[in-house]
Amino acid sequence: MMRDLVIIIFTAMLVNNYVLVRFLGICPFLGVSKKLHSAVGMGLAVTFVMLLATAATWPIQTYVLSEFHLEYLQTIVFILIIAALVQLVEIVLKRYIPALHRSLGIYLPLITTNCAVLGVAKNNISEGYATFIEAMANALGCGLGFLLAMVLFAGVRMRIETAKPPKCFEGMPITLISASIVALAFYGFAGVIDNMFL
Amino acid sequence: MLNAILPAAVCVAGIGLICAVILVIAARFMAVREKSQEKELRACLPGVNCGACGYPGCDGYAAALAEGTEKRTNLCIPGGDAVSEKISQMLGVEFQDTVEEVAVIHCCGDCEHAAKKADYSGIQTCSGAKMLYGGEMACTYGCLGKGDCAAICPYDAIYMEKGIAHVHAPKCVGCGLCVKACPNQIITLMPDTKREVIACSNKEKGAVARKKCTNACIACRKCEKICPTGAITVEENLARIDYDKCIVCGKCRTVCPVGCILGGDHSGRHRFSEDNRGGRE
User: Fold this and answer.
1) Are the Cβ atoms of A68 and B16 closer than 8 angstroms?
2) Closest residue of A to B128, CA-based?
């Protein structure tokens, strides 16, 4: 059981990394990765929202949508729930951790429409995680993977700042190219996890 | 038909309703009571976030004023008297006059008069150039000419001409961002009136300074001698003006052999908007 959960977490984090392998949630990945501090904050916020979203959407899918054969409503219901959750998180953050709320700024509301969060909620169902615990483990792995990608890429971007690429590559182009190279590196994890915990 | 739609509609509406109720409850119980005064005060401030008031940005100053920890309403130099007046009214305290200031550049060693010692092709900023043997100019005291001050100025009041920075005083509000940006510290803030300015920062001996820049102060003391009020003194091979004594007679300007004393009107934006409203902008 424990071994299964660890495999789920590491698979979601490294092999199926949402940003670098599945290319979901690219907007905050490129938008907030300029500084390590805000990258970590954003990564933690997304992880938290992913866990919350899974905690809310998995039971709803299993006990409401599947029960009444309304699976086709999955997307719209999940978006609804995630939007409400993010709003709730924002209210709570503003009240209790105003410093974090300020530093996340516009990106917190943007998590609402972050496809990585919706992707986690939908993949939990489509990949067929049988129990709530497994779905939560997957969400945790995805969140940690997002955090890892953000932190790694923040480091890469700090190096790019001081590098002098050709004029036509300055700014976003060189950022996208380096993102693709980091993504290539992550493809190296394919097949590693299954053998890691034998 | 209806049998197919109804459960779906009820389901989505139900979930939406539950979410809405939770959000309403959360908003009711965890609402942050923002001090409305802080918001109003913040709206009065210009929003340059220059830090001239000594607080981290306009938000910080507004918060300190709203909290009551800050009693001085005249700290916002870019805002000037107008902002001070508004804040005073809002807080119900007596109006405090703001000392309007403008930035003044103490260097006139442009590319026609100052000698170069190297060609710098690194990162094109003053702070970058400064790191490599004090920049490409022979004089390491003067303007580095890469325009860090012009880049940081939120009011476009500084322009680069002939390799050195100039302040277009009618646009300057005296926020002091350029003062902090200049790695050679050749920019100072001064109350904005007509005045003489020593446009040189070189502290080397006359002969050495002269070789590096024909506009450099050579500490000949002519200005010191002619000044009728004794406002000018030469310290560390550089003339200085005591503005408490200076009467802006302009005599120093006429005798200066290198022409590094500049006169003229340093009226900033505040004065222009006070004197002839809308006249110059």
Assistant:
1) no
2) A162
- Alpha-carbon distance of A192 to A11, in angstroms, equals 9
* Residue A42 in this model has a pLDDT that exceeds 80: yes
What is the model's pLDDT at position A154?
92
Give the CA radius of gyration of chain B: 27
Q: How many CB atoms lie within 10 A of CB B178?
A: 27
How many C-beta atoms surround the C-beta of residue A119 within 10 A? 18
Q: What is the mean pLDDT of residues B25-47?
A: 77
Binning pLDDT at 50, 70 and 90, where does residue B36 land?
A: low
Residues in chain B closer than 8 A to A81 (CB atoms): 15, 19
Quote the Cα angle for A58-A91-B40, to 5°: 160
Provide the Cα torsion A29, A34, A40, A43; round to 10°: -10
Give burial (CB, 10 Å; 0-12/13-18/19+) of B58.
Answer: buried
Confidence class of residue A88 from pLDDT cuts 50, 70 and 90? confident
Task: Indicate the average pLDDT of chain A.
Answer: 85
CA atoms within 13 A on the CB side of B43: 7
- Interhelix angle B2-30/A74-96, nearest 10 degrees: 0
Q: Which residues of B touch A70 (CB under 8 A)?
A: 7-8, 11
- Please check the confidence at residue A197 and state whether its pLDDT lies above 70: no
- What pLDDT, on a 0 to 100 scale, did the predictor assign at position B270? 61
ipTM of the complex: 0.72
Confidence of residue B271 (pLDDT cuts 50, 70, 90): low
Residue of B nearest to A163 (CA): B123
Q: What residues in A contact B22, CB-CB < 8 Å?
A: 84, 88
Nearest CA in chain A to B9: A73
pLDDT at A148 over 90: yes
CB contact under 8 A, B7 and A76: no
What distance in Å separates the CA atoms of residue B43 and residue B62, rounded to the nearest whole number? Answer: 9
How far is Cα B258 from Cα B31, in angstroms, rounded to an integer?
66
CA distance A8 to chain B (A): 29
Q: Counting one residue from A and one from B, how many pairs have CB atoms under 8 Å apart?
A: 45
CB of A18 closer than 8 Å to CB of A116: yes
Q: Residue A76 and residue B12: Cβ atoms within 8 Å? A: yes
Hey, what amino acid is at A168?
Answer: C
* Residues B144 and B129: beta-carbon distance below 8 Å: yes
Q: Which residues contact A13 (CB under 8 A, 6 or more apart)?
A: A141, A142, A144, A145, A148
Q: Is pLDDT larger for residue A88 or for residue B194?
A: A88
